[in-house]
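chain below, 338 aa
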Amino acid sequence: MELLIAIIVLALLFDYINGFHDAANSIATIVSTKVLTPFQAVLWAAFFNFLAFFIAKYLIGEFGIANTVSKTVFEQYITLPVILSGIIAAIVWNLTTWWLGIPSSSSHTLIGGFAGAAIMASGFKAIHAVVIIKIAAFIFVAPLIGMIVALILTTIVLHICKRVRPSKAEAWFKRLQLCSSALFSVGFGLNDSQKVMGIIAAAMIAAHPLGIGMGIESINDMPSWVAFSCFTMISLGTMSGGWKIVKTMGSRITKVTPLEGMVAETSGALTLYLTEYLHIPVSTTHIITGAIIGVGATKRLSSVRWGVTKNLMTAWILTIPVSAALAAIIYLIVSLFQ
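prediction:
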């Protein structure tokens, strides 16, 4: 029981860290365009992160992404030490990238840690390769979708507004950015909160054969407080902000205007809703970066700082294997105390 409780506490801590690590995804453009102050922006984003809980539970009626994450490792190979090692590795990597100001993926950190610990415990037969390959593929597919949608939307918006005075158009887009930021924040809450739900569900399923009180037979038996706690923690984390990453996302990739900020957030939100429908856990970091690149590229390709983008993509690719390796090492240490 103590180990299961420790896992749940650490998972919710990771959820909180995920919130302030990835807060920049929701607020970077709205802060850089000075539509809201940083403090106003995090409150705005946190509110819509939490609102996503009610949308998932009462409108969508399921937590499909949580189900996908819980199936990253085959059920018979899921143990509490495996999950504990994966969560510790994910927390370490997330805090490291936050400290360095690198907008890496909390999603892939968690999945990489879970898989790496399982591989160390039982070999490659423990992981559901099809699920992991699909998730890994969206490291490239998700930002590409975000970029293409942003390119199309920017072109359409510029055509519609070509006869409007620049000052009037800017005033419009500053107001519209409030809506686009809210849409993206809902998508962030829907996507990222469910990943931790999936890990907690996996821990409860692993606890069931051991006769532990909070054990469940399947993810469908997951108590409501798990979802509520996950959405609450990510909202609190968002309120804490992540200013180093805000700077990278909001200005270092390309200079963002209110029009471009609105388009980037809307494109990111549409991409997140698509992946929610497909039940694929993706990185909000990857998606909003792709969207920002897309709006920057409509001006000219040289307006995008490709050196910064290249460094970001390197971090994305390394996240799963580094997290997996770190989790494997932690599992070896944890296994010494079993």
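Residues 248-253 have pLDDT under 50 and may be disordered. The two ends are 14 Å apart (CA to CA).
thats it, cya
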